[in-house]
Protein backbone atom coordinates (compact mmCIF):
# COMPACT_ATOMS: atom_id res chain seq x y z
CA UNK A 1 0.00 0.00 0.00
CA UNK A 2 1.23 3.47 -0.88
CA UNK A 3 0.24 6.61 1.02
CA UNK A 4 0.68 9.53 -1.37
CA UNK A 5 0.69 13.19 -0.31
CA UNK A 6 -0.75 15.43 -3.02
CA UNK A 7 -0.28 19.14 -3.79
CA UNK A 8 3.43 19.50 -2.97
CA UNK A 9 4.51 22.88 -4.32
CA UNK A 10 1.17 24.63 -3.79
CA UNK A 11 2.14 26.47 -0.57
CA UNK A 12 5.01 26.60 1.89
CA UNK A 13 2.94 25.09 4.73
CA UNK A 14 1.90 22.12 2.56
CA UNK A 15 5.55 21.54 1.72
CA UNK A 16 6.59 21.67 5.38
CA UNK A 17 3.89 19.23 6.45
CA UNK A 18 4.78 16.86 3.63
CA UNK A 19 8.49 17.01 4.42
CA UNK A 20 7.83 16.24 8.09
CA UNK A 21 5.69 13.21 7.23
CA UNK A 22 8.16 11.95 4.64
CA UNK A 23 11.13 12.15 7.00
CA UNK A 24 9.04 10.45 9.69
CA UNK A 25 8.25 7.51 7.42
CA UNK A 26 4.52 8.28 7.44
CA UNK A 27 4.08 8.62 3.65
CA UNK A 28 5.60 6.76 0.73
CA UNK A 29 5.04 9.10 -2.21
CA UNK A 30 4.69 12.81 -2.98
CA UNK A 31 2.81 14.25 -5.95
CA UNK A 32 4.18 17.59 -7.16
CA UNK A 33 2.41 20.59 -8.71
CA UNK A 34 5.29 21.76 -10.85
CA UNK A 35 3.72 24.96 -12.21
CA UNK A 36 3.16 26.53 -8.79
CA UNK A 37 5.62 28.81 -6.97
CA UNK A 38 6.74 26.49 -4.17
CA UNK A 39 7.93 23.63 -6.36
CA UNK A 40 11.66 24.32 -6.41
CA UNK A 41 14.83 22.28 -6.12
CA UNK A 42 15.45 23.81 -2.68
CA UNK A 43 12.05 22.57 -1.48
CA UNK A 44 12.68 18.98 -2.56
CA UNK A 45 14.34 18.00 0.72
CA UNK A 46 12.72 14.56 0.79
CA UNK A 47 14.17 11.14 1.58
CA UNK A 48 15.43 9.23 -1.43
CA UNK A 49 13.11 6.34 -0.59
CA UNK A 50 10.03 8.50 -1.22
CA UNK A 51 8.54 8.22 -4.70
CA UNK A 52 8.09 11.51 -6.56
CA UNK A 53 5.31 12.03 -9.07
CA UNK A 54 3.84 14.67 -11.35
CA UNK A 55 0.51 16.08 -10.12
CA UNK A 56 -0.70 17.17 -13.57
CA UNK A 57 -2.66 20.40 -13.20
CA UNK A 58 -5.10 22.02 -15.61
CA UNK A 59 -7.40 23.77 -13.11
CA UNK A 60 -6.56 25.32 -9.75
CA UNK A 61 -9.96 26.58 -8.56
CA UNK A 62 -13.59 25.36 -8.66
CA UNK A 63 -14.64 27.70 -11.49
CA UNK A 64 -11.86 26.63 -13.85
CA UNK A 65 -12.39 23.00 -12.88
CA UNK A 66 -16.11 23.13 -13.69
CA UNK A 67 -15.29 24.66 -17.07
CA UNK A 68 -12.69 21.96 -17.73
CA UNK A 69 -15.11 19.16 -16.84
CA UNK A 70 -17.81 20.60 -19.11
CA UNK A 71 -15.40 20.93 -22.03
CA UNK A 72 -13.99 17.44 -21.44
CA UNK A 73 -17.39 15.74 -21.57
CA UNK A 74 -18.50 17.95 -24.45
CA UNK A 75 -15.32 16.82 -26.25
CA UNK A 76 -14.35 20.41 -27.02
CA UNK A 77 -10.90 20.08 -25.44
CA UNK A 78 -8.10 19.66 -27.95
CA UNK A 79 -6.00 16.57 -27.31
CA UNK A 80 -2.90 18.20 -28.75
CA UNK A 81 -3.25 21.11 -26.31
CA UNK A 82 -3.48 18.72 -23.35
CA UNK A 83 -0.52 16.74 -24.69
CA UNK A 84 1.55 19.92 -25.07
CA UNK A 85 0.77 21.10 -21.52
CA UNK A 86 1.52 17.67 -20.06
CA UNK A 87 4.83 17.61 -21.92
CA UNK A 88 5.74 21.03 -20.52
CA UNK A 89 4.91 20.04 -16.94
CA UNK A 90 6.74 16.71 -17.31
CA UNK A 91 9.86 18.49 -18.59
CA UNK A 92 9.69 21.04 -15.76
CA UNK A 93 9.51 18.17 -13.27
CA UNK A 94 12.59 16.55 -14.83
CA UNK A 95 14.50 19.82 -14.85
CA UNK A 96 13.82 20.73 -11.21
CA UNK A 97 13.81 17.26 -9.64
CA UNK A 98 16.69 16.04 -11.83
CA UNK A 99 14.87 12.75 -12.39
CA UNK A 100 11.87 11.33 -14.16
CA UNK A 101 8.61 11.11 -12.21
CA UNK A 102 7.87 7.71 -10.71
CA UNK A 103 4.17 8.23 -11.40
CA UNK A 104 1.64 10.66 -12.85
CA UNK A 105 -1.72 11.62 -11.40
CA UNK A 106 -3.89 14.71 -11.69
CA UNK A 107 -5.02 17.58 -9.49
CA UNK A 108 -8.76 17.17 -8.88
CA UNK A 109 -8.49 13.80 -10.67
CA UNK A 110 -8.30 15.50 -14.07
CA UNK A 111 -6.25 12.59 -15.45
CA UNK A 112 -9.52 10.63 -15.56
CA UNK A 113 -11.47 13.07 -17.73
CA UNK A 114 -12.34 12.34 -21.37
CA UNK A 115 -9.74 13.70 -23.82
CA UNK A 116 -7.29 14.29 -20.94
CA UNK A 117 -6.92 10.55 -20.26
CA UNK A 118 -6.37 9.83 -23.95
CA UNK A 119 -3.73 12.55 -24.24
CA UNK A 120 -2.03 11.18 -21.12
CA UNK A 121 -1.91 7.63 -22.50
CA UNK A 122 -0.63 8.90 -25.85
CA UNK A 123 2.09 10.92 -24.09
CA UNK A 124 3.26 7.95 -22.03
CA UNK A 125 3.29 5.59 -24.99
CA UNK A 126 5.34 7.99 -27.12
CA UNK A 127 7.49 9.75 -24.53
CA UNK A 128 8.05 7.05 -21.90
CA UNK A 129 8.37 3.91 -24.03
CA UNK A 130 9.99 1.03 -22.17
CA UNK A 131 9.73 2.59 -18.71
CA UNK A 132 6.19 3.93 -18.34
CA UNK A 133 5.41 5.71 -15.07
CA UNK A 134 2.53 4.41 -12.99
CA UNK A 135 -0.72 6.35 -13.40
CA UNK A 136 -3.16 6.69 -10.52
CA UNK A 137 -6.81 5.77 -10.92
CA UNK A 138 -9.57 6.38 -8.38
CA UNK A 139 -11.69 3.33 -9.22
CA UNK A 140 -13.63 2.09 -6.18
CA UNK A 141 -15.99 -0.86 -5.63
CA UNK A 142 -19.58 0.39 -5.53
CA UNK A 143 -20.13 -0.67 -1.87
CA UNK A 144 -17.27 1.66 -0.86
CA UNK A 145 -18.61 4.67 -2.76
CA UNK A 146 -20.20 7.71 -1.15
CA UNK A 147 -22.26 10.18 -3.17
CA UNK A 148 -19.10 12.23 -3.71
CA UNK A 149 -16.82 9.33 -4.54
CA UNK A 150 -19.14 7.71 -7.08
CA UNK A 151 -18.59 10.68 -9.45
CA UNK A 152 -14.83 10.25 -9.06
CA UNK A 153 -14.75 6.44 -9.11
CA UNK A 154 -16.81 6.03 -12.31
CA UNK A 155 -14.30 7.77 -14.64
CA UNK A 156 -11.58 6.06 -12.62
CA UNK A 157 -12.84 2.67 -13.76
CA UNK A 158 -12.75 3.82 -17.39
CA UNK A 159 -9.20 5.13 -17.01
CA UNK A 160 -8.10 1.91 -15.33
CA UNK A 161 -9.40 -0.19 -18.23
CA UNK A 162 -7.63 2.04 -20.75
CA UNK A 163 -4.35 1.95 -18.82
CA UNK A 164 -4.37 -1.84 -18.55
CA UNK A 165 -5.16 -2.14 -22.25
CA UNK A 166 -2.18 0.13 -23.01
CA UNK A 167 0.04 -1.88 -20.61
CA UNK A 168 0.64 1.16 -18.40
CA UNK A 169 1.00 0.24 -14.70
CA UNK A 170 -1.70 1.48 -12.34
CA UNK A 171 -2.95 0.84 -8.82
CA UNK A 172 -5.51 -1.80 -7.88
CA UNK A 173 -7.40 -0.15 -5.04
CA UNK A 174 -7.85 3.44 -3.91
CA UNK A 175 -8.81 5.46 -0.85
CA UNK A 176 -8.81 9.03 0.39
CA UNK A 177 -12.11 10.52 -0.73
CA UNK A 178 -14.32 12.00 1.99
CA UNK A 179 -16.40 15.10 2.69
CA UNK A 180 -13.82 17.72 3.71
CA UNK A 181 -16.48 19.50 5.78
CA UNK A 182 -16.25 16.55 8.20
CA UNK A 183 -12.48 16.89 8.62
CA UNK A 184 -12.70 16.41 12.41
CA UNK A 185 -13.55 12.77 11.71
CA UNK A 186 -10.44 12.25 9.61
CA UNK A 187 -8.65 9.90 12.05
CA UNK A 188 -11.54 7.44 11.59
CA UNK A 189 -11.57 7.98 7.83
CA UNK A 190 -7.84 7.22 7.71
CA UNK A 191 -8.32 4.06 9.77
CA UNK A 192 -11.04 2.95 7.35
CA UNK A 193 -8.84 3.62 4.32
CA UNK A 194 -5.99 1.62 5.84
CA UNK A 195 -8.36 -1.24 6.54
CA UNK A 196 -10.16 -1.31 3.19
CA UNK A 197 -7.52 -0.43 0.59
CA UNK A 198 -5.64 -3.55 -0.60
CA UNK A 199 -1.90 -4.06 -0.48
CA UNK A 200 -1.33 -2.85 -4.04
CA UNK A 201 -3.59 0.18 -3.65
CA UNK A 202 -3.03 3.88 -3.01
CA UNK A 203 -4.34 6.20 -0.31
CA UNK A 204 -4.43 9.87 -1.34
CA UNK A 205 -3.79 12.41 1.44
CA UNK A 206 -3.56 16.22 1.58
CA UNK A 207 -1.45 17.33 4.57
CA UNK A 208 -0.88 20.96 5.44
CA UNK A 209 -0.42 23.22 8.45
CA UNK A 210 -2.70 26.21 7.84
CA UNK A 211 -6.08 25.06 6.51
CA UNK A 212 -8.03 23.20 9.23
CA UNK A 213 -8.93 20.19 7.06
CA UNK A 214 -5.35 19.77 5.87
CA UNK A 215 -4.08 20.17 9.43
CA UNK A 216 -6.44 17.40 10.56
CA UNK A 217 -5.01 15.07 7.92
CA UNK A 218 -1.45 16.00 8.84
CA UNK A 219 -1.96 15.33 12.54
CA UNK A 220 -3.75 12.02 11.92
CA UNK A 221 -0.95 10.86 9.64
CA UNK A 222 1.73 12.02 12.07
CA UNK A 223 0.20 9.99 14.89
CA UNK A 224 -0.69 6.95 12.75
CA UNK A 225 0.90 3.75 14.05
CA UNK A 226 -1.03 1.20 12.01
CA UNK A 227 1.13 -1.29 10.15
CA UNK A 228 1.16 -0.89 6.38
CA UNK A 229 2.31 -3.24 3.63
CA UNK A 230 4.48 -1.77 0.88
Produce a short descriptive summary.
The protein has 230 residues and is of the alpha/beta class.
List keywords for this structure.
7-stranded parallel β-sheet, 7 helices, alpha/beta, about 15% strand, 7 strands, TIM Barrel, about 230 residues, globular
Task: Provide structural commentary.
The protein is of the alpha/beta class and 230 residues long. It has one domain (2-223): TIM Barrel (Alpha-Beta Barrel), CATH 3.20.20. The chain is 42% helix and 13% strand. It contains seven helices and seven strands; from the N terminus they run E-H-E-E-H-H-E-H-E-H-E-H-E-H. Strands 5-4-3-2-1-7-6 form a seven-stranded parallel sheet, covered by helices on one side.
Radius of gyration: 17 Å
Report the count of strand segments: 7
CATH third-level topology: TIM Barrel
Number of individual domains: 1
What sort of overall outline do the alpha carbons produce when their principal axes are compared?
A: globular
Beta-strand content: 5-15%
How are the SSEs ordered, and which strands pair?
Layout lengths: L1 E7 L3 H12 L5 E4 L18 E6 L5 H12 L5 H19 L5 E4 L9 H12 L6 E2 L11 H19 L8 E2 L10 H11 L5 E4 L6 H12 L7
Parallel strand pairs: 1-2, 1-7, 2-3, 3-4, 4-5, 6-7
Helix pairs in contact: 1-7, 3-4
